[in-house]
Here is the input.
Amino acid sequence: MTAHVTRPLAGVRIVEISSFVAVPLAGMTLHQLGAEVVRVDPVAGAADYNRWPVTPDGASIYWAGLNKGKRSVAADIRSAEGQDLVQRLIAGSGVLITNVAGREWHSYETLTRLRPDLIHVEVSGRADGGTGVDYTVNAGIGFPLVTGPADLASPVNHVLPAWDVTCGIYTALAVVTALRHRDATGEGQQVRIPLENVALATAGNLSFLTEVMVNGTERERIGNSIFGQYGQQFTSSDGGSFMIVALTNRHFRDLCETTETADAVAALAKTLDADFTDEGERYRHRESLSGLFTEWFAAHTAGEITAALSATSVLWERYRSFAEVVDDDRVRANPLFTPLRQPRIGEYLAPGLPLSINGDYPKAVAAPALGDDTAGVLTEWLGLSEDDIAALTESGTVR
Amino acid sequence: MTAHVTRPLAGVRIVEISSFVAVPLAGMTLHQLGAEVVRVDPVAGAADYNRWPVTPDGASIYWAGLNKGKRSVAADIRSAEGQDLVQRLIAGSGVLITNVAGREWHSYETLTRLRPDLIHVEVSGRADGGTGVDYTVNAGIGFPLVTGPADLASPVNHVLPAWDVTCGIYTALAVVTALRHRDATGEGQQVRIPLENVALATAGNLSFLTEVMVNGTERERIGNSIFGQYGQQFTSSDGGSFMIVALTNRHFRDLCETTETADAVAALAKTLDADFTDEGERYRHRESLSGLFTEWFAAHTAGEITAALSATSVLWERYRSFAEVVDDDRVRANPLFTPLRQPRIGEYLAPGLPLSINGDYPKAVAAPALGDDTAGVLTEWLGLSEDDIAALTESGTVR
Here is the structure.
């Protein structure tokens, strides 16, 4: 099995009926761990098949990015014949992941009649049964009102669909946990993951909700500062932006020494009667401290700042654009990324799974086009003949 | 095993040597799935033990939130005796998760000498070996420069530590996948997860990096709009903020009808020669469309808007503060949350795991205080006697 150590889910088959981010990411992640994942779509493609960004020819870079390594089956899932075929694929594989909620024909109740030990994982919008997507869930949860410059009054949406991404990895976790449980007991599972619950649990686990319940206080909008720690954004003489974080006393001492403010900070501590070995005090007096450090940053170029900070324990980073990231060795020389020839899109550096197993990163594999694997999967999984498949294609049941 | 279906990892033991968010969240998640998780800390506590927010008495609400349900062992891990004890705990459990990288005494190489089939999962900062935390990784990845109002020049940090959260769930996924692999093959695994790689892979999977490589274009700052779709923020006559999303033609039609703009939108389509059944066209002309919708939102109260949108397919949400969320039935009447008596903190509604298994959400369990379980774990896991433990306490090896 050594050959399989970076493909620990080899031999597992999974059917995905999905669109958008969370469940496609889950399916791709499970593929990257070794599973064979078949995404089933309507013959015209799901609602995300042409999603932006697209190439000049209209091929969705987005879709290719979130469906790498899967096999694609296109079927008329509104017809009884199409539904029957897909039910047989699910029953054969034993695992369904979906965000298409509330469809009787692929519900847990219906499918367990065909496959009693089915693992059925369904992502939905809101916990109370309502619809929701990342950007509406995020609006309802509290973060946009505390994100952005302190003097801003309006909400600030995140650009990263963080709830979708988190929900996708929870979905993959639920599948693997259920697989292990089924291996041991023979039992399947019905798992439900409302996207809103992922957001609510995270806001609770990270204290954003709990501090209201316990202290009656609410997080304020503090710009680019980090709550409860010393963390701040600075600008260099040539306009570079830096994020600087000092979590520990060592970080903070190094920051004071590098910025030549050790004496001034000591004097400030005396004046304010503050103990800067306490992270809470560093947070409370962050504006006074930042005032002292700002001068040094403003007097040095981005290059000088980079050189000076690199020699210290301070946690820091220069803000970069996506274009700068792409040109950086952190992408170009990173084994996470490998060249991928993606039909319809071109060749680019694609990320694999962001974790190495025994030293190797599971690599990116190209995404299919809609229906690329319909015939192959129907043959391999269901034993259909060429004639069977020709008839199904003829009748419009598959594509 | 039916009793275990919501505790599928029952019987698994895990040692966690950690601080901050990612690995503590991973350990808590694994506990919520049924594992027994022992967090090992230095006798004075790790760097996160007093992290804000805190109660008026100084107890960390933050720490309690991310360590629910674990057992706590405090040991002098700088001493050979303390290290030996912790090594025995890890060897006995067979699973270590840690973000304390680069320590010889709990490295994969050292520990596999004691436990050849060890599962060793290590979270680090940057892929190239450098240090990094969520807020520095995020600065380096590109998102802050495209977040916030379009006319803003400076970066906007996220408040949600999205990379830490995502990395934590990847860590839990890595552990369960490795457990299943070990069950089947007897082999352990060494897994490494650089936080920066989680961010880079996500930025790649979601096309932020790929569109630069393929199209040579880069995402722009577009405020609260959603890229490639119709999604926008509106304000009611009484100052309520709403996020409105129309992904499909049905959503968009309903939005036009509700805002009584169907005729105006049709006229606009004619004028612009635009096809608003194409999501890309809706995105391209978002400002013209929003101009038409804005008037209706500005002429209605938040209550009226809520009532009108509730009857439609439109995806929408009112922006809320954390305090509003806490008072909402989505928390108060949500089975995800259960009352928790948390020593040192008080009683509050705490989230469990945000997924239900066969209809039940794994519930929140109180967090320990530092060292609460030292004696219990040393007795149960290593068979130490009361006298052994008294001697270790006396010598300062454990607390």
Chain B touches chain A through 151 residues (CB under 8 Å). Residues 162-185 of chain B form the longest helix (24 residues).
